[in-house]
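Hi R.,

Here's the chain you asked about this morning:
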Amino acid sequence: MNRKNPFNPSALEPIARRTDRRFGEGFTLVEILITIAILAIGMLGTLHLQIVSVKSGSKAESLTTASLLAESEIERLRAFPNFNRLRSAIVDSERIAKDGQICRTAEENCPFSRNVALTERTPTSRSHTVTVEILWSDSTGPQRLVYDAVFTDYNLGSSI
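And the predicted structure, written out as tokens:
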């Protein structure tokens, strides 16, 4: 009985040769360069998004701090019982640190400047308008935030 051996290595030789050739070639230099270029473009896009995100976060932090500084000054002035005391409590201009503390020396890091102005008898004869302006600079240039608050006799609790 002359049977053919199903596990004859010579019968598998063409398949093995074909498989070795396909896996033996590897990637070409052009394929690798194209892959690197695609990855680099994707990474540059991600890097750009990260930079924009950091700048936006910094700008939002500065704007929030400026709003808090203006609101705290308006609330401080609202606590005065009459217009005469309110008038005497207004400080025209101050340099302020990020934590809200007033800077006393030129060496201190004070990115914000607060200007306060009182316009008497506006919009009515029994009211005054307090304008609080916060100035600072960031990566896009000088910034300005202005809050106006109207104080009436009712707000202060006494007459003019």
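DSSP finds four helices and four strands in the chain.

Let me know if you need anything else.
M.
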